[in-house]
Amino acid sequence: MMARATSAAEVAPTGYAWHVRAEGLRVKAGRRMAVDGLDLGLGVGVHGLLGPNGAGKTTLIRSLATVLRPAGGVLELFGERVAGRADLRALRRRLGYLPQEFGYYKRFTVREFVEYMAWLKEVPKAEVPGAVQRAVERVGLADRADDKLRTLSGGMVRRAGIAQAIVNDPDLLLLDEPTAGLDPGQRVRFRELLHELGADTCVLVSTHLVEDVAAACADVVLFESGKLLFQGTPAELAAEGGPDDVGDSPIERGYSALLASRGKTDGGKAGAW
Amino acid sequence: MNRDEHASAELVARYAAGDPDIPPDRLWAVESHLEGCEVCRVRLADVAPPPVAALSAAVWAALEPELTAPPARVRHWTRLATWATPSLVPWLIMTLLVLFAVVVLELVLPSDAMPSAVLLLAPIGPVLGVAVAWSRGLDPAHELIACTPRAGLELVLRRTTAVLVVVLPVLLLTGWLTGDSAAWWLLPCLGLTSAALALGGLVGVRRAAVATSVLWALLVVGPAVVRNAVPVVLVPAAGPWWAAVLVAGAVVVLMRSRAYVRVDNW
């Protein structure tokens, strides 16, 4: 039996309706408009961001993380517009972000790395040691906390990355391909952590692994060519697929059915490799 | 059973073995007595059956290192990193080597007419350091830092301070060795740094620092070498102008402090 996951429909935070709200959002990646007219609303719960490579998932996440400035449209985080010279400082205190590829200082130990990130996120000084210890324990790195990052395996570094993302107890947690480099056992534990976090946090997990979404997310956001293709529960996604569609599981079949229908309207290009 | 009266050996043994037939009132009495009586706890430990002894030994083995360990060492790196990133270290070493080479050249090849290289290059030393300190390509953790609340003017200023703290003493020392008084270059140095930061709010700190350095090389260093004279902007009389640049730059930086929060302004 799967642990209870909070669905996006249960959103009732005070002051704002959605943690993330986008309306006609456009974001550039270099010269390309990687997010092009996106309408999206995300509340508390675990949302899986699915899409083929190059769909613009990373660009979307970077713009939600306030790293990239939107080129057009409306983007609201916690009910506040992120535009122009908005005061990002208060917003950023409530963010957690794990980039797909992240650099770090190799001489730092796991604890120093997470402590430094806690300082950057303005966690009150007295709370830093406790918050760091909790974050490191939650990702299962407590026994390696005082080892240097350069001695860790790729999967452990990624877990250290997850630890820094959650060290400030964010209200909006953005994870870009967090399961890359994790072995199957670690993936299962990571999904348990997602369930836990999703109870009171808006978590957006980008992945191209359909099975991650099926197991860990209460809400699926299917994203293709910079636009929203589908948003709903994994069951609704599975219902989109028929027996003739490509895939080994109902959700995979739903995924390929949606991409293929999109491909037809685009002249059949998107379905090809 | 009151506090002065110890539990009987028979009762302690039954308690240690986890005997389920001890009446609840006696169980409660022996437990509360054990909590307050060290003698009986020792007697309990002596008669504890092997599984209990093994369990308490394992717990103790796990706890002992933490309880007896020396206090955690001071985390130098974290404290230092709030001012300068580890990626600055190679740049600082390079600066020291370059200045060392310049000093050696000055001392080995005395040139009376030429303005000294230390004097000509000192004003852009910290500017280049600031470019290194706040540049996307040279800070591996930039993507993580870019979305944190501290990213922005505070971090730019902290890193600039770190660069100045290291570079200025070295410049003072080399200036003293080659006979270039700080009165000639200190204000231009601070003025250029301030101007580069102000420009950085518009075009990004790294681009601004590089542009400032290139302009300095073209407009000041080049002509000085060609004309074989100390450039007019580096004579002590130009000091007030540089002080004005310093103040104006600082004012612009503070007024436009929000321009530094985005990564595309790095």
From TrEMBL, chain B:
The keyword Cell inner membrane does not apply. Coiled coil: none annotated. Gene3D superfamilies: Anti-sigma factor, zinc-finger domain. The chain crosses the membrane at residues 88-109, 115-135, 156-177, 183-203, 208-226, 232-255. InterPro entries: Anti_sigma_zinc_sf (IPR041916). Keywords: Membrane, Transcription, Transcription regulation, Transmembrane, Transmembrane helix. The keyword Lipoprotein does not apply. This is Membrane protein. It comes from Saccharothrix coeruleofusca.
